[in-house]
């Protein structure tokens, strides 16, 4: 009898743990739970001063809410030779679509580096390599380490240092409304619907 009760208790504990990890069984991974939570309730992002490249002067700091357009945000670092390049290639295609349909007044692309080693000069070189149009696609860093971590936490970005100065990190497209709320998270290999989603988020709710 004691063994049976112990087994039942273990099963209940396991079910509760799975329920917690899957947001009440609605998702099966932590990443999916992050996306489901944002889908259910858009999240107001914390204030963070961003160094935006290209700068128009010696110093140019912006806030995510200062632009007035819907932003498609990705997190990256210039030394990444894997997923960041894939996202960059997708952003190049999105940039062309925005140009072709004259949507630059409605939506922008923003790549934010979480690597403290990515100086403004490094971001400028990377932007040139990616052939970014600064009106549409900008690169940014967060100089203040406390604000940087707060921003990563708010977006749900996990960054783990790896050998040779590399990082392991989750990647996705983050739709940020003009009022600074994170409204939707989309798989980085599912970019075909990004502009449709951005257009929907731009409409008055």
Poorly predicted runs are 3-28
Give the helices and strands as they follow along the chain: HHEEEEHEHEHEEEEH
Query: What is the molecular shape?
Result: globular
Report on the biggest sheet.
8 strands, mixed
| Residues in helices, as a percent range | 25-40%
Sheet-strand content, in percent, reads 15-25%
Radius of gyration: 19 Å
Can you walk through the features of this model?
- By secondary structure, the protein is an alpha+beta fold.
- Helix content is 39%, strand content 22%.
- It is built from six helices and ten strands.
- The protein has helices at 2-21, 30-40, 83-100, 120-129, 145-155, 194-202; strands at 43-44, 50-53, 61-62, 70-76, 107-113, 137-141, 159-161, 167-169, 172-176, 181-187.
- The strands form two sheets. The protein has an eight-stranded mixed β-sheet with strand order 1-10-9-4-5-6-2-3, sandwiched between helices. Strands 7-8 form a two-stranded antiparallel ribbon.
- A hairpin with a 4-residue loop joins β9 (172-176) and β10.
- The longest helix has 20 residues, at 2-21.
